[in-house]
Amino acid sequence: MHxxxxxxRRPVIAHRGNRAHAPENTLEAFAQAVAxxxxxxxxxxxxxxxxxxxxxxDATLERxxxxxxxxxxxxxxxxxxxxxxARFTADGGRSFPYRERGIGVPTLDAVLAxxxxxxxxxxxxxxxxxxxxxxxxxxxxxEARTVVDAFDGAALAPFRGSRIAIGSSRGDVARLLATTxxxxxxxxxxxxxxxxxxxxYGIPLPVARFxxxxxxxxxxxxxxxxxxxxxxxxLWAAGVSGIVTDDPGLMLRxxxxxxxxxx
Length: 263
Description:
Distance between the termini: 23 Å
Oligomer: single chain
């Protein structure tokens, strides 16, 4: 079973790859996370100007690359040639070890080809990208190893009826919050996993209550973005399944210690 769908597991999910140590959402960051033993890769997908799905978080390029402007106005070839390692620094700007090393914004196809067996958790950032994402996953035979989610539920509609597992949308989480706040348990849900932060806009989410309510339905709850071992162990103890983290190596060591202690 896909580790992101298994309530019996505590997957360590690499948030945009090995983001604490390499440029986020790049093949380099993903390769490092896979080498460390992360259970799944999490990343974001937008749509380039030529209709090709590309792996990038922001709608614009300035924060993480040497480029500027809206991503949707660039072709996938232009994005692949953009220096996506230019802004990464692990020492407060004293050094930029990945600058000008040929690391570009990858296409989804490039990620699927480079990591043909790795479980994936893909957040679709814009609904327009969804049909192209589905087509790419089916073209690479990656349906069984992929879970897709999105803030906007419209981005998930093209996957219904496919063999690709669907996670929760923001609307789904709002409905779950209302149900659990009323001390009710959902009888059925239209998603296979929930991936949420500890809070939205300063309002804490009852992630332990979510986990307890959904466990009878075999729907795991994963929490992002957790980089503190103390927080991770408290979440596992509370019944949360997965930890989505910028530092998968640290979280893998944390899980090993936690499981030794709880054995």
